[in-house]
Design brief:
This protein is mainly β. 4% of the residues lie in helices and 56% in strands. The chain contains four helices and 52 strands. The strands form nine sheets. The chain has a 22-stranded antiparallel β-barrel. Strand 20 (300-317) and strand 21 form a beta hairpin.
Length: 826
């Protein structure tokens, strides 16, 4: 018997063996919406008899159109509605006779400063949720004292599977930053050049951050490691406004000076009451960084960034809702790249711009929901070095002027369609949804490079690399995708999600299928334990940077002997495209057990196995077995031809244990331990987005952290309106390599590690009312234990400072003031 038919027979037998999903009885049909009449998907409906002695329960989950259906015997009942991010609707009495149509409204959660109790945590063991998710709510983003809390990127480290490297790169479950898809209200927000998330968003603008990995909807497919879905705040019929950090900070470190300043203002409310609403958040950042190991006057870096995110909803009719978003990012940084081993002369002045706009039309036809959307992104970035002197790599660090002057511009036009069919019954209940989309991508580059030199332990010149060619090029690409998902509720305690996705890319002339299947099962009668698992194939988006590199300048390297005499003529390094390139892919196996210990205390154990293949890298076809190097281009006396290939392989395994408890208000705590392994056969470093060397075996990734303990809390203190916020993050130090004076790595790649890293942040917050206005005053300390937590190291064998660590984090005092609108009557 063919394998596909065997699987179908097994599933059919299972569906007949397990109790049917719905019992016969009166029909209870309904729809769940928010306060703005928008449908609420994945809300859990619980119906129970009014008689408290009865243990009967009927449950359903709303479709993406907000619709639910139950068969319940006639009688008097109480109905509950639960959904993360919304206030719970509890104990609403209803009478069911023959048939009943209900519309249930649940309000979205806002902060405790605007409500007495915003407890928003429904059961964590709902079997309707088969995906492998981590969620941060808007209140958690604002309550937990993580470092540099003005920046949404830094929020992500509050998730158990996320670490941030010393350069600020964000890594989900051991992945490179461009192996994740980042979406804002359903639209791709990544930079098409690098595939990275570079947008600046104010934490106050975010309603939730949802990270899904391994088993998730085929709606998302341009990231082998998963998808980060950013949902923004929406306006209501009442005006709300906040102001945060509107007073500049003071830095007391080698004297008193104006410190970092992150003023943010948020306003939301009605455009037309009952019909149209908006939410707008403006953020500005003035940053100053002090590098204590550099001379006075040359030890500071300053920068300015600004962003504005506008979100609007217009109900054109009760069944036609239009959503719009507009985001603008501006940034200007002087002395970019300043660090313990990188003095002022090596830094750059960087200017960046990003514009994003989207429209999504949602049409509701009874039990059918259709969405159509369009979005446009534009990115531009320029970097200018301090001069045109040769850039220098030496055992003492870097020197001279950075060797790249560049202007990059990119754009993406994206289209999507998403449809949800009505539920139907066949061996259980089914919810079918399908969709597709297309992207048009453009990348224009203008690069002018000077040269860089490599100096030895005695300051002798070892090699010099210069560049020829125009460095002016353009790359165009087109992408298309289609997908199908069936949510199959076989029984009250068992659900299967099965789907498939198809992706096509014009640059590669390649297409790929990505099947996915996941299950959720409540094996015990009390329905407080959930077992989930699944298998999926996922694929990465195609970054445009490697295709631009092929059209870019050619490098010429001259090697020198004694007395600075050239050993021979310059050797050229050119870049070419390989043939039969494929979409990078990964296979994912995952499983989890979740247990609701008590009403608001949950524990979970999860396992993830990801095997990535066909990743992009450049391989020197003339010397494929050359020893690995940490230079921008491996130094060689012979010419090199670097061909783009699919030889990169990434492996990740992890097991994690998490405990989470919520209290009244928005108080809660979470603790987790993760044991993981992140390895690759590519030599990954900060010099290039796409690796230039492939190894015969796997080595630790630069952000591999085998052991990590993460805990955070926002807890009430004995005094009214006082709270304690805390974060503890302890992990294994990141790996690094040591090198010879020629740049060649000595020993194994990533065979050394930074010291153990530990951060402990504590803050006390008090809510006060002055003249009817509310303020939240916070004071705290980051890195309370004054742990060194270095970010740089002298790694050249033979240098006087060999294996000396630098970039101590130091202890920081933090003050935050948040202002809220006038309080209403109590």
């Amino acid at each position: 018997m063919p394998r596909e038919k065997l699987v179908w027979v097994v599933l059919t037998l299972c569906s007949l063996w397990i109790a049917p999903a719905e019992a016969s009885g009166s029909s209870l049909n309904g729809r769940v919406t928010d306060e703005n009449d928008a449908p609420v998907a994945s809300a859990r409906i619980t119906v129970r008899p009014s008689n408290p002695a009865s243990a009967d329960r009927w449950q359903a989950q709303t479709s993406p159109a907000g619709v639910f259906k139950l068969s319940v015997p006639a009688g008097n009942y109480l109905i509950d509605v639960q959904r993360e991010g919304y206030y719970e609707l509890k104990d609403r009495p209803i009478h069911i006779d023959t048939a009943l149509e209900l519309t249930l409204v649940i309000d979205s959660v806002r902060e405790v400063f605007q409500s007495v109790d915003v407890n928003e945590q429904p059961s964590h063991v709902d079997i309707a949720q088969t995906s492998n998710d981590e969620r941060l709510t808007g209140t958690e983003v604002l309550d937990i004292p993580y470092p540099n809390s003005h920046n949404l990127r830094n929020t992500l480290q509050l998730m158990t599977g996320v670490v941030i490297d010393p350069s600020g790169g964000v890594h989900f479950n051991g992945s490179s930053e461009n192996q994740l898809q980042y979406v804002l209200n359903g639209f791709n927000l990544t930079n098409p050049i690098s595939g990275q998330f570079q947008s600046t968003l104010a934490p106050e603008s975010v309603r939730s951050l949802d990270f899904s990995s391994a088993r998730y909807s085929p709606e998302f497919g341009k990231g082998t490691a998963g998808v980060l879905a950013i949902r923004t705040e929406n306006g209501t019929d009442a005006f709300h406004y906040t102001a945060t950090d509107f007073i500049p900070g003071v830095q007391i470190q080698q004297g008193v000076r104006i410190g970092n300043w992150y003023p943010r203002i948020g306003v939301s409310g009605p455009i037309v009451r009952g019909r149209a609403w908006f939410s707008d958040t403006v953020e500005s950042q003035y940053t100053t960084a002090l590098i204590t190991s550099l001379p006075p006057g040359q030890d500071t870096r300053t920068g300015w960034e600004g962003s504005n995110l506008l979100h609007a909803q217009v109900n054109l009719t009760p069944k036609n809702i239009l959503y719009a978003d507009f985001l603008i990012n501006l940034n200007n940084v002087s002395r970019y790249g300043l660090g313990p081993l990188d003095p002022v002369s090596t830094t750059q002045t960087v200017h960046g711009r990003e514009y994003f706009g989207s429209l999504k039309d949602q049409l509701y036809f009874g039990r059918v929901l259709l969405e159509f959307g369009y979005a446009h992104n534009e990115f531009s970035n320029s970097q200018t070095p301090q001069g045109q002197s040769p850039y220098v790599f030496s055992p003492q660090g870097r020197g001279g002027n950075y060797f790249v002057t560049s202007t990059n511009a990119a754009a993406r036009d994206q289209f999507l369609v998403h449809g949800y069919a009505p539920h139907f019954s066949f061996l259980g209940s089914h919810q079918i949804e399908a969709g597709g989309g297309g992207d048009l991508l453009r990348y224009n580059g203008d690069f002018h490079r000077s040269s860089y030199e490599l100096l030895g332990l005695s300051n002798q010149l070892l090699s010099q690399t210069s560049f020829v060619g125009s460095g002016l090029f353009g790359v165009r690409d087109a992408e298309a995708s289609a997908w199908l998902l069936d949510t199959w509720r076989i029984a009250k305690s068992f659900q299967i999600n099965a789907g498939v996705r198809w992706d096509w890319d014009r640059l590669l002339h390649d297409a790929g299928w990505s099947p996915r299947i996941a299950f959720s099962w409540a094996p015990l009668a009390d329905s407080r334990t959930r077992v989930t698992g699944g298998y999926s194939i996922t694929r990465d988006a195609v970054p445009l940077q490697p295709f631009g590199r092929v059209l870019d300048q050619t490098a010429l390297t001259t090697t020198y002997g004694a007395n600075d005499v050239p050993v021979g003529p310059p050797s050229a390094a050119t870049f070419t495209l390989g043939s039969n390139l494929k979409l990078p892919r990964a296979t994912n196996w995952s499983a989890a057990v979740d247990r609701e210990i008590s009403t608001h205390l949950n524990a979970s154990v999860s396992y993830l196995r990801r095997r990535g293949t066909d990743g992009f890298d450049f391989v020197n076809t003339l010397e494929p077995n050359a020893p690995p190097s940490l230079l921008p281009l491996p130094s060689a006396t012979a010419a090199g031809v670097y061909r783009l290939s699919n030889l990169r392989r990434d492996d990740f395994d992890s097991v994690s244990l998490t405990v989470h408890q919520t209290f009244s208000g928005q108080h809660e705590w979470m603790a987790s331990y993760t044991r993981s392994r992140a390895e690759s056969n590519a030599v990954l470093d900060a010099n290039t987005l796409v690796p230039l060397q492939v190894l015969p075996s796997l080595v630790p990734m630069p952000w591999d952290a085998p052991n990590r303990i993460l805990a955070w809390a926002y807890l009430p203190l004995p005094w009214k309106n006082w709270s304690l916020a805390a974060l503890a993050d302890a992990r294994t130090g990141f790996p690094f390599s040591v090198q010879q004076q020629t740049g060649v790595i000595a020993g194994g790649v990533g065979s050394y590690r930074y010291p153990f890293n530990f951060d402990l942040n504590l803050a006390i917050e008090r809510i006060i009312t002055l003249h009817g206005y509310r303020f939240a005053l916070r004071g705290g300390v980051d890195n309370l234990t004054n742990q060194k937590n270095p970010t740089a190291v002298y790694n050249i064998i033979g240098s006087p400072q060999y294996l000396t660590f630098l970039g101590d984090e130091g202890r920081h005092f933090v003050v935050r003031i948040r202002f809220f609108e006038k309080t209403g009557p109590k």
